[in-house]
Design goal:
Length: 436
């Protein structure tokens, strides 16, 4: 966890009754197809009338015709598939998420991987538009709109050897170093292929999960799956930085797309190497268990000194509001630093790490209660950066050396994935790699 905030974005846009959309967080690769899907005109307001008394009672229920009303709730929001950067990176936090890693089946190689990515891309495009899958749709999301559904695809280190593409493997995808705080389960780490699914409706997210799993067919099998959630958009009176399961405002200093160097920090440049990663990014994925029973024994005062921020509003202990600059030199009446040297927010500041920055876009998780009664809960940490060796690694090394929060968390799974740029119209994700 780092002291960063998920930035606002316009990646999801309301879908009108005509099927047109407006705005997108990423620059469209080409004009999206226009059309009216069965989910774009949803429901009717007062579609049936109930006639009571006299002749009406004898006749029973009478249908009252009403004009179809376009969906205006969260379900109408749509993220675009054909964009410069894949959806699900700068998209605002979504209420429900699924993370999956797949391994290619024995004997499957580059040809099978290309066919799989082609099928997956077609399915993702359809579902993100609120349309059914092309084959064997399960109707799970039949009554819902797109609900800001995003699907993001990435490649793990092992994918390149499996497909004979070792020469195309980026150096930035070299395995992460070992950290002293790691307690990693190898069965829930890494993988040939990575898929991130996000939506603001749980059934829409599961629908995509099921469709993509089915499309994998005999080409790949699920290595691991993790399920997460966030606060539903609109649940607060105004937009706010998310809170994690420790109750802390989590992510105040996330880089923002409005910043001049945002793209440089988060995305591989169009002229970068390898060429197939142009406009792409690297995702570090960590399952971080929160030791909530131990954390909740601390007083609010002690929790705030572990983090370095007030629990109520996320403001630094040195004063001001959530976005106020933290005065790292400020001392109290006894000469002690107001923000302790080992406070999480101090250690993770970009200006304390040579400018290292990541775009954090996490989900919380709760996978039940262990036999000893402790909750299996925490954070599905997802951090986006142009180069993990300059983003995640230096920050995590510093956290390893003395973060006060380390006593209350445990890193249980890890993965690093190369996520190529968005697919242009008529292209599938990863085509520039697999058909080079």
């Amino acid at each position: 966890m780092t002291d960063q905030q998920t930035p606002p974005s316009t990646a999801s846009t309301p879908a009108s009754a005509s099927g047109a959309t407006s705005g997108a967080a990423s620059e469209p690769a080409s004009a999206p197809p226009r059309g009216l899907s069965r989910r774009r005109l949803l429901g009717t307001a007062g579609a049936t009338g109930l006639v009571l008394g006299g002749a009406g009672a004898a006749a029973g229920y009478t249908a009252a015709p009403a004009a179809a009303t376009p969906l205006t709730s969260l379900g109408a929001d749509r993220a675009m598939f054909h964009v410069k950067h894949q959806p699900g990176i700068t998209t605002p936090l979504q209420a429900r998420g699924h993370l999956l890693a797949f391994d290619l089946a024995a004997g499957a190689g580059r040809k099978e991987a290309a066919a799989l990515l082609r099928r997956w891309s077609d399915t993702a495009q359809r579902l993100m538009a609120g349309e059914p899958a092309a084959h064997g749709d399960t109707d799970i999301a039949r009554d819902a709109g797109p609900s800001s559904l995003t699907v993001t695809f990435g490649f793990g280190h092992s994918f390149f050897a499996r497909t004979g593409l070792e020469k195309q493997r980026p150096t930035a995808l070299d395995p992460l170093p070992d950290f002293s705080s790691d307690h990693l389960d190898k069965r829930r780490s890494d993988g040939d292929l990575w898929v991130q699914i996000g939506a603001n409706d749980a059934l829409v997210a599961f629908h995509a999960l099921r469709a993509l799993q089915k499309e994998a067919g005999s080409a790949a099998r699920v290595r691991w799956q993790m399920n997460g959630f966030n606060r539903t958009p609109g649940a607060t009176s105004r937009p706010r930085t998310a809170r994690n399961l420790m109750g802390q405002v989590d992510g105040t200093r996330n880089p923002k797309p409005s910043e001049d160097d945002f793209d440089k920090r988060i995305f591989v440049p169009a002229s970068g190497e390898p060429a197939w990663m142009a406009n792409g990014s690297y995702a570090v994925v960590r399952r971080i268990r929160m030791l909530l029973d131990d954390w909740e024994k601390l007083s609010t005062h002690d929790q705030e000194h572990v983090i370095g921020r007030r629990k109520a509003d996320g403001a630094p202990l040195t004063g001001g509001g959530e976005t106020s600059a933290m005065d790292l030199e400020k001392t109290d009446s006894e000469g002690n630093l107001v923000v302790p040297l080992n406070a999480h927010a101090r250690i993770t500041r970009p200006d304390q790490n040579g400018g290292a920055a990541m775009l954090r876009r996490p989900f919380s998780f709760h996978d039940g209660i262990d036999e000893d009664g402790t909750p299996d809960a925490g954070l599905l940490f997802i951090a986006w950066q142009a180069d993990p060796l300059r983003g995640f690694v230096p920050v995590q090394r510093k956290l390893d050396r003395g973060d006060a929060l380390s006593r209350y968390i445990r890193h249980e799974a890890s993965g690093l994935f190369a996520v190529p740029g968005g697919a242009v119209e008529g292209e599938y994700v990863g085509q520039r790699l697999l058909e080079a």
